[in-house]
Amino acid sequence: MKQDTVIKILFVTDALENAEQIISQLRNSGIAVRPARAANEAEFVAALDSLGPDLVLAEPSARDLPLAEVTRLIGASARDIALLALLQNLDADALAQAFRAGARAVALANAADQMRTAVLQEFEALGTRRSVRRLEAALRESNRRCDALLDSSRDPIAYVHEGMHVRANQAYLDMLGFESFDEIEGQTLLDLVADDADDFRGLLKRLARGEPPPARLDLRLKRADGSVFDALLEFSQATFEGEPCLQIIARRQVVDETLLEQLQRDPVTQLYNRSHFIDLLGAAVTEAGNSRNDQAVLLLEPDHFANIVERIGISNIDALLRGMVERIKGVLGPNDVAARFSDHGFALLLRGRPHESVQVLCTALVQAVGGGIIDLGNHSLAVTISIGGSLMGEKNANTAAVLDQAGNMLRNAQGEGGNRFALYDPAAQERANAEKDRRWHNLLRDALAHGRFVLFHQQIIALNGSEGSLSELLLRMDGAQGLVLPGIFMPVAARHGLLPAIDRWVLREAIRLLGSPGFSQQCFFVKVSTPSMLDEKLADWIGEKLRESGVPGQRLIIELQENEVITNLKPAQRFSQQMRALDCRLALERFGVGLNAFQLLDHVDADFLKIDRSFVNDLARNADNQRRVREIAQQAQAHGKQTVAEWVEDVNSVSLLFGAGISYVQGNFQHEPERLGT
């Protein structure tokens, strides 16, 4: 699922805490959720209009809105909404009752993995249903347009099902001497064949068995008045009113084969032209979608073409292209198809070639073109080429996709200096991701072992008379090509259990800096991950480091994510109490995204509330965000808490935040992060 996809979920539950916990579970697993909650019919109907939910998660035991009633309300809304029964435990009776009440699936509130899987599956199924409806509407419109085009076409066209005419346009009727379709409806195509009826009957039998039709067939047809004429029938598979049939284009004159061939060729190189190549590629993509995995498409271009043109002149370009084509053809196999794809680019469609064979061919092409001098009469020069390719399979069975992939690979090869090739292999992507993960894991372990992490700090500016010199510590890793942002390496650290070690490194450095003369008046916000929060020994370790450095706990502000705290409420309570005992302060990051975020303060007594950045983005133009920020600021003041707005990037936002009563702002607009010495 795309990272920016937001699932709109309407919860039907009596307990707000249950909905909050599920929202946190989903967000922790990487699913963006826009939630709402309904406890009765009026709230449910209002939420259908205001939220427009994709999914409804409903507890069958909800007091004022049982599952069957939820099903009725969804049906009455005439909307396609996936209904999931929210169960605490799974047993046969509960499962049967949920499905009888109209649930499409069940989600277990106490099983985060099953919950995530059920939500994603139903959301994807909903997306598929929506796509099908769009495609059906597009198909109806396409059929309508095709029907109009059929009637207006000058080509004689008919549709035949099981040998019988089921549709024909006026040009077809005129060619055969019929005034209306009623005269030919129900008549077999065989009735119109003048000669070789037995051969044609055999063809119809083979088509009935599912064999593909011939592309074209020469024969003699009879008109309604009994006269006979030579005809060329072109066949293609089609559907009519949902049934498979044959589309037939009948022509009175046989098409000149030489002319047809020339229409498909580029006049300069005599390769296929782009249009015909796209048709051939479309057929190959269809085969790839049906599990044929021995095909590839390649795009070739001469390197530094602009310099070549300047050197030899435009008048010699055609000769250059022909010289390159000669060398390209010399290494192609009998099943390989070449085309001129652009002004100076070529395309190859390879069939019957596994991955290794494609690589061998690419090497041969690079060597063949760059291995000698091309004679252009008054000029001669050596030319090299770059090749970008895409191996075709079920995962990328789409004409536009494989061309884009090949084009990207071509740009990569050119960007590395040319005279080389690069191939996109969909199956190799997973292997590459695994290898990349292993490489980053090793880099992280090395960074921990040799102190290759770097700390920055960003000042947090006080508004409305708030006091204190505050900064947030920001972590970077010193990589071979420069500093690496945490968004790249922290997910790897989480997968390999390295977050506690990294957190302790940051905390140790933070406390050391706070104890140094240059930061004697400073307070640091320090992010702590969930595994560290769950570590019962961390508080004692922090207390020991504070005592060793002589730093008051007040100057260390431990920052936790709101959704992580909700998911791990009891450990978070224990950790917050331990921090209070050390006189450390607490901050809740990404605050305000839950259904009732301030209820969390009854369990975890935070000093600072860092408003979720989604409420600050585009603040000057988003009235809903402005309203939500004011509400958070007012409620925070009522609870005696200070608020921090992150990612503030413009002066208009600062003015609005000041007017809303926000305590602090943080962002590059005020102060960009500064590197700290080690």
What descriptors fit this protein?
Rossmann fold, single chain, 8-stranded mixed beta barrel, Alpha-Beta Plaits, Beta-Lactamase, globular, 4 domains, 678 residues, 22 helices, alpha/beta, 5-stranded parallel β-sheet
Cα distance, first to last residue?
41 Å
CATH architecture heading of the largest domain: Alpha-Beta Barrel
Give unreliable regions as ranges: none
Q: Can you count the helices?
A: 22
**Into which percentage range does the β-strand content fall?**
15-25%
And the CATH topology of the largest domain?
TIM Barrel
Characterize the biggest β-sheet: 8 strands, mixed, barrel
Number of domains: 4
CATH superfamily of the largest domain: EAL domain
Bin the helical content.
40-55%
CATH C-level class of the largest domain: Alpha Beta
Number of strands: 27
Structural class: alpha/beta
Q: Biggest sheet: strands side by side, in what order? A: 18-19-21-22-23-24-25-26
**Average pLDDT score:** 87
Radius of gyration: 35 Å
Gross morphology is globular
Topology:
Elements: E1 6-12, H1 16-28, E2 32-38, H2 41-50, E3 55-58, H3 67-77, E4 82-87, H4 92-100, E5 105-108, H5 112-152, E6 157-161, E7 164-168, H6 170-176, H7 197-208, E8 216-222, E9 228-240, E10 243-251, H8 257-263, H9 274-289, E11 295-302, H10 305-312, H11 317-329, E12 337-340, E13 346-351, H12 355-370, E14 373-375, E15 380-382, E16 385-392, H13 399-415, E17 421-424, H14 426-450, E18 453-462, E19 470-479, E20 482-484, H15 486-495, H16 499-514, E21 523-527, H17 530-534, H18 538-549, E22 556-561, H19 562-567, H20 569-581, E23 585-591, E24 608-611, H21 623-638, E25 642-645, H22 651-660, E26 664-665, E27 674-675
Parallel strand pairs: 1-2, 1-3, 3-4, 4-5, 16-17, 19-21, 21-22, 22-23, 23-24, 24-25, 25-26
Antiparallel strand pairs: 6-7, 6-10, 8-9, 9-10, 11-13, 11-16, 12-13, 14-15, 18-19, 18-26, 18-27, 19-20
Helix pairs in contact: 2-3, 16-18
